[in-house]
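New to this. Look over this protein:
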Amino acid sequence: MSEVVEVSIVLADGATLPTYQTTGSAGMDLCCSEDFELQPMERKLVPTGIRIALPDGYEAQVRPRSGLAIKHGVSMVNTPGTIDSDYRGEVRLILINFGQDVVKFKQGERIGQMVICPVVKAELKVVNELDETLRGQGGFGSTGR
């Protein structure tokens, strides 16, 4: 069984409580709190009507829904989007329509997912040299040769 963490939530008028669709779902579905449409290649900041309070040491990642991507070409511009534990504003998603048709959404439709994740803080240590590895500085496709 996964760890369970308590997250406080405030629902505005028109908001839908995020829910896990199955017992094995990693993300809760997020719904839009108002009707809207996306023209081809249009991006829009879409409200969910929810505000959350995450415990210290956690973040919420907002991600696109695969069904919207394959059916309509709708995705998110910044994915995953990060919601920090000290943020108390409305959760909103930056959606984009990569498809060729206008996509219309009704209030309460699922538009994204939210995954709650633990956060590890890094302590940076300035050094003159890094340790050597077999890969070295090879990047951007270098391991596929």
